[in-house]
Amino acid sequence: MLHAFDFKYRLEVIECVSGHHDDSRWPADLLKCCAFRLQEIPPSTVLVFCHKCVDVFAVKHKCPSEIVSRAQLRAPTRLLAAKESQSGEAQFYFSDESLSVLKNVVRRSQIEGVLCLGTPRLFEELRQETGDRRLFLLDYDKRFAQFFPAHQFGQYSMLVDHFYDERSSEELHGFFECSSVLLVCDPPFGVFLNPLMRTCSVSTGISFDVKNLEVLGNVLEDYKDYWMSDYRITYESHRLFSNASKTIVRCFTNLKADVFDLSNVKGYKFCEFCEKYVSSTNKHCFMCSSCTSKVYTYKHCDRCMRCVKVSYYHCKKCTRCHLKGRFDHD
């Protein structure tokens, strides 16, 4: 939990109330956001948060509540219980290590605006940093509307490109006035790729994406400007993907490779030939002019003119490499 951001947070809230955003444009329900109402509560007041009402109170509340600090209210993903629904709404947040890497990518990209699509923890971390960077969060979880002002948050479904409040769409259009926009997207596990990419294509200035390794082949075939970083994204409290050796999630991006500085992350090395950081187990193939390994060690097949898994062999009938015994003619 970070604590050194009280002054920055106060500046943001004051700007929401009396700066660039006129309160009269928004109905009363949107002004119930904690960020607005905290300005009316003396700093010395003990605050209680009700998980049932998803609200903060300055006095004793009728529901069972817990005492919280103002700092906790600025990091709702660490305060709210993550959804555990198996119907596609389950929430998993980036681990602290992955957060650090992604924040560094954002800084090194030197882009004016950052659009966080389904990445609320990264959004709340970036809000705590000083600077002129503009931020906007799109997420399906409507609970975040209680913590983030309307000019920075909209409830949104990334798969069907649907805003649950048309005012959020208007605010997003204003956000896209930035000279450059970096999109950080973390889609639900098992999501179909095409609807998601169509949604991303609706917006302009897209520069960053996070995808599952499972769809990598189709992605690279359809989107030639994108490449996959070797960095392994990990998640907090995920049964498998909290472990870097087991996660299949990678960063898929059209940013330049030099924004990924993994010099202080264990398990990576800098390839002087590729001029980027790769997994420490990855080997450079001079025939392919690339570090080709994804998860396992690869070997180069002269006939296929590409690198394949070590367990593959070149099949004359198929005229390609595959695992021995996969087909009847093996």
Layout of SSEs?
Blueprint: H1 6-18, H2 34-37, E1 47-50, E2 55-57, E3 66-68, H3 70-73, H4 96-109, E4 113-117, H5 120-127, E5 134-139, E6 153-157, E7 162-163, H6 166-175, E8 181-185, H7 193-202, E9 208-212, H8 216-222, E10 227-232, E11 249-253, E12 268-271, E13 276-279, E14 284-285, E15 290-291, E16 298-301, E17 306-309, E18 312-315, E19 320-323
Parallel strand pairs: 4-5, 4-8, 5-6
Antiparallel strand pairs: 1-2, 1-3, 6-7, 9-11, 10-11, 12-13, 14-15, 16-17, 18-19
Short summary:
This protein has helices at 6-18, 34-37, 70-73, 96-109, 120-127, 166-175, 193-202, 216-222; strands at 47-50, 55-57, 66-68, 113-117, 134-139, 153-157, 162-163, 181-185, 208-212, 227-232, 249-253, 268-271, 276-279, 284-285, 290-291, 298-301, 306-309, 312-315, 320-323. The protein has 330 residues and is an alpha+beta fold.
What labels describe this entry?
single chain, 8 helices, alpha+beta, 330 residues, 5-stranded mixed beta sheet, 23% strand, 2 domains
What does this structure look like?
It holds the Pfam family N6-adenineMlase. One of its GO terms (cellular component) is cytoplasm. Its main location: cytoplasm. It is a single chain. The chain is an alpha+beta fold and 330 residues long. It has two domains: 74 residues, no CATH class; 169 residues, Rossmann fold, CATH 3.40.50. Helices cover 21% and strands 23% of the residues. The protein contains eight helices and 19 strands. The strands form seven sheets. It has a five-stranded mixed sheet, with helices on both faces. A hairpin with a 4-residue loop joins strand 12 and strand 13. The longest helix is centred in the first third of the chain and has 14 residues. The chain is elongated, with a radius of gyration of 23 Å. The N terminus is likely disordered.
